[in-house]
Amino acid sequence: MKDMEELINYCLNCPTKPCRKGCPLENNIPDFIKAAKNQKFLDAFNILSETTVLSSICGRICPFNKQCEGNCVRRLKGEPVQIGKIEAYIGDKFLDSDYPLFSSMNEKNKNKVAIVGGGPAGLTCAAFLKKFGYDVTIFEKYDYLGGIISHGIPSFRLDKEVTLKTFKKIIDLGIKVEFNKELGRNLSLKKLKKKFDAIFLGFGANKSKISNIKGKKLPNVYGANEFLESKRKLDLYNKNVIVIGAGDVAMDMARTARKWGGNVLTIYYREKKYMKADAFQVKLACEEGVDFLFNTTLKQIIKNNIGYKAYFINKKGIKFVYPCDYVFFAIGSKTDEKVTKKLGLKLDINGYIKTDKKQMTSMEGVFAGGDLIGIEQTVAHAARSGRDAAYNIDLYLTKK
């Protein structure tokens, strides 16, 4: 691997900043790299902190080839600038330091804001609201923070120590956290409304979509999202595992199953070039022994005395059977209707929470973002939604 100085100097610092346009958070990439070139790492960190509080995380897990690096001018005649590695490097330099996340904070005001969900959207929203001077409390249903970052991304792809240090930097801004608080169980929107001046809902949409086929409710058939979230571990040595999907969750599930000893076959109904997963993750999956079958659809899963059998059909109309032990669906996620329908908020036809242009829901003072409103399901997009919500909440409370 090239050393960091060489990676940093490879950037052309384009005045048009196409890489920034490709970043969901619109990080000022040329400027923070330029500061790093001049050995002004604190300046580089401060530039990043204007738009993100998850540098060390996003710098490791973002699908760079589809975002910032995919828009890099260098890519036209060779390899793009490795923006992710540089961002993570800058972020990491300050994780262990006493330097705060933001170089300046607004004077504290009297308004209180509740954040429901401690994932990327909630954490980012909370951090920026605290920067603006608000009294912020996060309500998280688990006994840990991070949401999809903590329970959806395997440790072989994201070091858990990095996530914990990142979350500590955010909480150290003075944000209060109440764990084991879940809407519909021991937390109500009505009570939060009485206590707080504004509320942000950012608890994600992590319920797996599962094809409506025969066998979808068999014991060894899982939604990949819920399975990864449960943090269960299976002994898959020499077991046949099928993963349905072609996104990052599918790759995480396939690589996890492979590391547990499974013979993993990933199924996708389209051609390889249409896969949504990061190309580097697909490459690693292939190198680790994950097999792929494209232009193929799962029709049903049958259980007999021997085990499970998956019935497939490809685009040529050829049908075949594959003996398997486990099936994981990773074809997207949706909101948990058991929760969203009880909130008393308007939903769209897909079950996502309806918001106006300023992210306010049908209930005055209640905002929503991230997966709940149907944005693209990546950490960076969720974080951007949380940051935007912080600005919208600030505008709302200032006017109020």
Q: SSE order, as H and E?
A: HHHHHHEHEHHEHEEEHEHEHEEEEEEHEH
Radius of gyration: 22 Å
The beta-strand count equals 15
Distance between the termini: 53 Å
CATH hierarchy: architecture of the largest domain: 3-Layer(bba) Sandwich
Share of residues in strands: 15-25%
Number of domains: 3
List keywords for this structure.
alpha/beta, Fumarate Reductase Iron-sulfur Protein, Chain B, domain 2, FAD/NAD(P)-binding domain, five-stranded parallel beta sheet, 34% helix
Description:
The structure is a single chain. This protein is α/β, with parallel strands linked by helices and 400 residues long. The protein has 3 domains: 4-93, Orthogonal Bundle (Fumarate Reductase Iron-sulfur Protein, Chain B, domain 2); 112-205 and 335-399, FAD/NAD(P)-binding domain (3-Layer(bba) Sandwich); 208-332, FAD/NAD(P)-binding domain, CATH 3.50.50. Helix content is 34%, strand content 16%. The protein contains 15 helices and 15 strands. The strands form 4 sheets. The chain has a 5-stranded parallel beta sheet, sandwiched between helices. Strands 6-13-7-8-9 form a 5-stranded parallel beta sheet. Strand 11 and strand 12 (319-324) form a beta hairpin. Helix 7 runs parallel beside helix 15. The radius of gyration is 22 Å and the shape is globular.
Question: Can you lay out the helices and strands and say which pair or pack?
Answer:
Layout: H1 4-9, H2 18-22, H3 29-37, H4 41-49, H5 55-61, H6 83-93, E1 112-116, H7 120-131, E2 135-139, H8 148-151, H9 160-171, E3 176-178, H10 189-195, E4 198-201, E5 207-208, E6 221-223, H11 224-230, E7 240-244, H12 248-259, E8 263-267, H13 279-287, E9 291-293, E10 296-303, E11 308-314, E12 319-324, E13 326-329, E14 333-334, H14 337-340, E15 366-368, H15 379-399
Parallel strand pairs: 1-2, 1-4, 2-3, 4-15, 6-13, 7-8, 7-13, 8-9
Antiparallel strand pairs: 5-14, 10-11, 11-12
Helix pairs in contact: 3-4, 4-6, 5-6, 7-15, 12-13
